[in-house]
Every structure is written in C-alpha cells, then in structure tokens.
Design a protein that fits this description.
With 816 residues, this protein is an alpha/beta fold. It is built from 25 helices and 35 strands. The chain is globular, with a radius of gyration of 31 Å. Bound molecules: zinc ion (2 copies). One zinc ion is lined by residues 517, 519-520, 535, 537-538, 540.
Length: 816
C-alpha cells in the first residue's frame, strides 16, 4: 500500500452478541492484527462486563463509536457465516415473527459451522514470575503456550483445581470462548493389508472353517474396500489381529440424494396449459421481475415439469433455484426428477443429513457449486447469493410453518420475501391451494395459472360418501363390502384416518351434530375431567350436555377412533390378509418409511391403515380403494382451518386411488355428509369448496380477512398460568393507541383480543397452557399490539418469571 493514501482501515465492527437478551449490535474496536480477519458475518469473541468474554457476530462496521468501545479479542470462526442480505432477511424475520435477531440468524447458520465452543484460558496480566512458587510458575508458562484448563488439571493432578483458582483469583487468567471446528466428514473403511494373491489363499483355507471371515475377505477382494459400519466388531478385530485387514479413515463419499430415487421419464411435449404457464413465468424470469404465480393443478397435471423447465431457464441465465417441498421423504418423485434433470448441481437438504454433511452442503450452495437447492421448510434460509427462482411445491401444506421452536416462521412467507428481495418470480403449486393464496389470486395479487387436466387423461376416482348416522361400528357395511370386492380383484386397500385426534369432541351418532362455539365458529373441545365443553378461542365454557340439542338423541359421545382400533377391526374381518399400520408411532424408526413403501410396491401388504402419512406423495399403482374412516375427526378440530384441512386431506387421499390403469374408488365415512368440504371433495370441486369457505371466513373474521397472533402462556401451576395469561390479555386489551384510533377513525375494537382460554392441549408435559389470540384487519397492528403487551408484561426480549413460559406464534397454522 502506498504511504500517501489515507488510512482506510475501518475502526469499529458492530457485534451482535450471541446471547439473545441483547438485541442491538454493539461497536467494538478492530485491533490492527485482526483488520483482515474481521469480515462481515464472522464470529468473534468480545469482552463484556468486567470479566467475561463472549461470542458474537459481526453485522456491520462504522468509523465512529458513540460510546467508548472495547476491543475485539479474537476471531472464532474465520469463515463468514452469513452475508448482508441474509442479515437483512434475519432482521425481517425477527420483526415479522416477534423474535430476536439472534434467534432468526440461527436458522441461517448450520450448527456445525459454529462448532462447539471450548473455554480457553488466557493470560491477561504478566505475573512477576519471581514471586511465584514452582508449580504456579510452570502453570503460567503452560497458559502462555495455550494450554487448556483440562491440560492444566492433568498436569498438576491433585493440585490442579487449587492452581487454577489461584491464577483466577490473582486476576492473571480469564476464560474466553474458543471455537472448535469440526473436521471434514470422514468414514471408516476396511482394506486388505496383504496382496490379493495371499488373501485369496486365506479365503480358500477358511471357506469351510470360518465362512464369515472368508466372506469379508472376498468382499474386500471384489471391491477393494468395505465401509466399517455394518461389519461385526469381532470379525474386524480378528482379521486386523491376523494382519490381513487394516482399518482406515477416508473422506466421506457424499451422496446428495438416496439412491432409491429413480428417474421418472419426462413428457416430451407440453400441454397447451403448461405452455401458457411457462410462457408467463419465462417472461418474469427474463425481465428479472418479482411475481407470484399460483399454479393450481390437479394431481398428475404436470406441475413438476413446469417447475423443471422454469428452473432450467433460471439456471441458463446464471441464477440459482430454491425448491421447497413439505418433506423430502414424502415427495420422493419431485426430488428424483430434479435430481435426474440437474444431477450434481442439486443439493438435497434432507432432514437426515448429519451435521457435517449439512455444513458441506451449505458451503457448496454458498460458493455457487450447487445451483438447485431442494429441501423442506428450513431450506428457505439456504445461502443462495444469486437467487433467480423460488418454487414452493404443495404450498398449502401445514408443515411449512415452524410450530415447534422459535422463530415460528412460515417458510412460504419467508420464501415470498426472499423472492421479492431477489427480484425473482416465485411459483406456489398445489392441487388444493390454501384459501389465503387462492384469495390473493382472485384479488389479483398473485397470478393464477391453472392446469386443469391430468396429462395421461386418466379418469378421476369415483367418490362415494357413506352416511355413518345409519351405520354401526367403525367400518361401515358399505366400506367392508367395497373392501372385499377390491381385495378379491387383487387390489390393495388404503384406510385413512384424517389425523390422530388431538382434541376430543362430542358427536351425536344420530344426526352428526358437533357442538360449536357460535361466536368463533370452531368446534368445542371436550374436557373429560371436568365434563365441560370449551371454546379455546374465546374461552366460553359450558357443561357438556348428555343429549343432542339438535335431534334430542342420546348417542351423544366423545369421538375419535385410533389407527390401532381400525387395524384390529380389519384383522377381525379379514384374518388371512397382511395388514399394516402407518402412523407416528410405527413410522418413527429409521428406514420404516422406505420399508413400508417397498412392501406396498411389492404387494406384500394388502391393507394399509394409516394417518396422513399415507396420503402424501406415494405413487402406488396397486391401490384400488381408499377408505376415509372418519372424516369428522379433521372436520371437528378446534381450528378455524378445520374445513380447509379436511378438504385438502380428502382430495389428497382420493389422489391415491386408481393411479394405475383402472379408475379407483374412494369411500368417505362421515356423520356429516352434507358439509360443504365433504361434498366439494366428493365432486372434485375446489371452487365450490373455496366459495363456501371464503364466505365463512369473512363472516367470522378469519384470515385472509384478518391476521392472528396467538400467545400461549404456560405455567408450572394452574393458578400461575391463569394469572399470567390474564395479565397479558389485559395488557393487550388496554387501548394504548386509542388516540390514533380516534384520529384515524379506526374502530377501537381492532385489534381484538380473544381469551384468555385454556389451550386445547391444556396440560402438556407438566405445564398448564392458556391461549390469548390477538386479531386485526391489519397484520402490522396485530403484531404491534402483541409486542407492546409483551413488553409491558415481561419485557422484550422476553424474560417471564420462573415457572412461566411464553410462546408467540404469528399467523398460527395449528392452533392447539
Ligand atoms: Zn343429534
Ligand atoms: Zn368461542
């Protein structure tokens, strides 16, 4: 550098501390020797308070500090973990979902990139070596050379603790975080330690006496090396001791997608509808223009081909593609087709990737080696720097919403925001679009592209509705008769339970009546212990009646058969057939899903009983009949989306029938055969469903006409929970913004506070849960009101008292 140039070195870095209770970045001076290393997005160690050194992220720079700044201690992770665009997105997520920027950033950084933080001790003052005893002098020397606390303990054995304490108390050393980065992924393999001829000789000798050892040697002779995993430990030990085999580590061979995915032949010519859709998308792609396309296409109408060709176009112009799917294992065909078309350039962010493999994929995406990223919800934070197209397949799926941990983001919304920022088109595809998305298409915010026909022109299955009010038992006579006919014809049968019933409800077996809260239009939840019905939106509670209020019938009982019960019934009726069950309990084991699919495809299973797991994404040509055992379970969920979910699940289940050469048959068992969602599903009529549903949403003030924020207040004691929930509801109700309401002429009823009321899952793992819902016609207003009330009650970032937990969910999808 030339001497007469002014000093351009930036003096301060803005550091966002990792501890989430400090939402604002703080300025820290960059020492001379770290000028190069301190880049945007790296992780650094900085002093905090009098004695602590803590980790943080560099999120900006400045030339001047408004406060006396301290100095960055070290760089913990030299590789930038995010760029400016990702930091900006994280701030958007934090604002949108009422979380801290740290919590939002955590979505963007693979845990392995952070490594494990080790605590290192560092010399911070120069002790006068002359006044120290021998051991202390030696300890100071060791610390100077970078020894860890553990090393000191080992070096001084019994005196270790005492020496460490002495160093600390004298103020000579202090603890600092030190990143420990994982190494490149490796796997252990076995190789021959002797020449092949010699090994062959041993094989001959051992073939009889020790067939397993001989077998392993033969495998090694054939393929050169064998992965260590899966080979019995004693076998390896014996052969290594005999000097025939060595065990080595070598870089893990990465397999971006499981080999079980098979290429699906792509149709050569496009239908006119596909052409039209692609034309519109291409125009946006070429103009580098943000636009939202809702692709409404029935199952088998060729949506994936549209995604693929749009992706090709984006890649041709040098940009990257993000494809979101509900769950990798449930959408093997979509993943396989992308993998087949784009090969090595595809990164599949499978939920089963190990931490190091995930880091590896993350780096390849960031460096631009991968141009197509396919993954579930979390992939929306993939470090694509040159995004040109976003695809959200099955956009109506509830799994796009993170419901388990903070931030409770909606990947579809984050994807829309990313596409907007990247000036890219985004494709939302579904056979049963979400009510919100279809409404936006009708309003003209989204462009609607319709693919109304199945490509191979196969007829849709015939759907029959079975009125359970006149039937006995779990399986109706009609369903049993149909099962028998299909099984005799060699078909497979799927019996589908809409979902596991989380919330109990009362159902009249004579007329199908389910008591509902008239104000909120959701089914009452039945609380067995108190024999009460409660609306968990508004909190209304009433004693559970023993008679039906509509028909006076006395067969008025809690409802919800389980998969196990249905499986037993099937076995009782068809004792000679193989029956399998697929639900959350049986599908948890690794590989269970793949095994089930293989058994189904090979025809080893004749009847499968399952939850929604079986209704998704499987292509099972042998299935002639799908029976929906209890449509009422989904219909009566205490959720304003109950009808929508029911329609989607019925349509999806029906899509599983008759995808072979014969049209299939679907039987829907229900106590409410006249419900619009069930009638529309029976007639394959999305529009009829949508018209009924959107009208009801408007009347009852639900999304898309309003926005909801749900706040769950949980307490260790029933009273503590109720008190905290009431305090929050009161704070949210107080019209702190009454003045500007008057000024703007807005109703003081908006935002509206519903509750507090016991959550449908009132007692969960030792917590008592209450729910408060804030609703507004303006999304910003609902969030702002909740933010104010949270701040008033517990401070922001949230610091509720001991024994109280607060969960904030913006735009909740499952309100349980
Ligand atoms: Zn009744
Ligand atoms: Zn209510």
């Amino acid at each position: 550098m030339s001497a007469n140039l002014p000093d351009l070195a930036v003096r301060y870095a803005l550091v966002l501390l990792e501890a989430p209770n400090s939402p604002l970045p703080l300025p820290y001076e960059i020492p001379e020797h770290l000028q190069e290393a301190v880049q945007f997005g790296v992780r650094v160690a900085v002093p905090l308070g009098r004695r602590r050194v803590v980790p943080g992220f560099v999120v900006g720079f400045c030339d001047r500090s408004p406060v006396p700044a301290r100095t960055i201690r070290s760089v913990l992770t030299p590789e930038p973990l995010f760029d400016e665009a990702m930091w900006s997105l994280a701030q958007w997520v934090a604002d949108r979902y009422l979380c801290t920027p740290q919590e939002a950033l955590r979505c963007a950084i693979p845990p392995a990139a952070l490594g494990r933080l080790r605590r290192r001790i560092r010399l911070q003052a120069e002790p006068l070596l002359a006044v120290l005893d021998d051991d202390l002098r030696r300890a100071v020397e060791l610390v100077r050379r970078g020894a860890s606390e553990g090393a000191l303990r080992r070096a001084f054995r019994a005196r270790g603790e005492e020496i460490l304490r002495a160093l600390r108390e004298a103020g000579w050393v202090r603890h600092e975080p030190d990143a420990h980065l994982p190494e490149a992924p490796t796997e252990r393999v076995l190789r021959l330690a002797v020449p092949p001829e010699q090994a062959q000789e041993v094989v001959e000798r051992w073939r009889r006496r020790a067939p397993r050892r001989a077998g392993l040697l033969e495998r090694l002779l054939r393929s050169g090396e064998v992965p260590r995993t899966g080979v019995r430990a004693d076998l390896v030990r014996d052969l290594v001791r005999a000097g025939l085999v060595v065990e080595e580590r070598r870089p893990l061979h990465r397999d971006p997608f499981p080999r079980t995915y098979q290429e699906v032949a792509a149709p050569v010519t496009l239908t006119p509808e596909q052409e039209t859709a692609l034309g519109a998308i291409r125009e946006a792609l070429r103009g580098r223009r943000h636009a939202v396309f809702l692709i409404f296409g029935v199952t088998g109408s060729g949506k994936t081909e549209v995604y693929l060709q749009a992706a090709e176009e984006a890649i041709r112009s040098g940009r990257q593609v993000l494809v979101l799917v509900p769950e990798i294992s449930l959408t093997p065909q979509t993943v396989a087709r992308f993998a087949a078309r784009f090969g090595e350039r595809v990164a599949v962010l499978h939920s089963r990737l190990g931490a190091v493999e995930r880091l590896d994929a993350w780096r390849r995406i960031r460096d631009g080696t991968c141009t197509v990223v396919i993954g579930p919800r979390s992939a929306v934070f993939a470090p694509l720097r040159n995004l040109g197209l976003v695809v959200v397949d099955e956009e109506h799926e509830a799994s796009y919403k993170q419901e388990e941990q903070v931030p409770r983001y909606d990947a579809r919304e984050v994807a829309l925001e990313r596409a907007r920022r990247a000036a890219s088109p985004i494709l939302l595809g579904s056979a049963t679009p979400s009510v919100e998305s279809y409404w936006k298409a009708q309003e003209g915010t989204y462009h609607l592209l319709t693919l109304p026909r199945r490509i191979q022109d196969r007829p849709l299955p015939t759907v029959r509705v079975v009125d359970m009010r006149t039937e006995q038992g779990v399986l109706s006579v009609t369903l049993l008769r149909a099962m028998r006919a299909h099984l005799e014809a060699g078909d497979q049968v799927l019996l589908y339970l809409n979902r596991r019933g989380y919330a109990a409800f009362l159902l009249c077996r004579d007329c199908g009546e389910v008591p509902r809260c008239r104000r909120c239009d959701v089914a009452f939840t039945y609380h067995l212990h108190s024999r009460t019905l409660r609306c968990h939106y508004c909190g209304r509670a009433l004693r559970a009646p023993s008679r039906c209020s509509r028909c006076g019938g006395v067969r008025f009982r809690p409802f919800g058969p389980g998969t196990q019960r249905v499986e037993e019934e099937v076995r009782a009726h068809f004792p000679d057939l193989t029956v399998a069950r697929a639900d959350r309990d049986t599908m948890q084991r690794r590989g269970a899903h793949e095994r089930l699919i293989a058994d189904l495809q090979a025809g080893r299973i004749r009847v499968l009983v399952g939850t929604q797991i079986i209704a998704k994404g499987l292509d099972l040509p042998g299935v002639g009949l799908v029976g929906v055992v209890a449509a009422d379970v989904a219909l009566s969920l205490p959720d304003f989306r109950a009808a929508e979910r029911t329609f989607q699940q019925l349509t999806q289940a029906a899509g599983r029938a008759g995808r072979g050469d014969r049209p299939g048959e679907v039987l829907i068992q229900t106590y409410r055969p006249d419900h619009p969602a069930i009638r529309a599903a029976a007639h394959h009529d999305y529009l009829a469903f949508f018209e009924a549903e959107i009208a009801s949403r408007q009347v009852h003030r639900y999304p898309p006409y309003t926005s909801l924020v749900s706040v769950i207040v949980a307490g260790r004691t029933p009273l503590g929970a109720e008190r905290a929930a009431c305090a929050f509801a009161e704070a949210a109700t107080r019209t702190t913004t009454a003045a500007d309401d008057l000024a703007s002429g807005r109703s003081t009823e908006d935002p509206e506070v519903l509750g507090p009321s016991p959550a449908p899952l009132h007692r969960l793992r030792g917590w008592y849960r209450w729910q408060v819902v804030v609703r507004s016609v303006e999304p910003d207003r609902a969030r702002e009101r909740v933010r104010e009330a949270l701040r008033a009650c517990w401070g922001l970032p949230l610091r509720p008292p001991r024994g109280v937990r607060v969960v904030v969910d913006v735009d909740p999808v499952e309100m349980l």
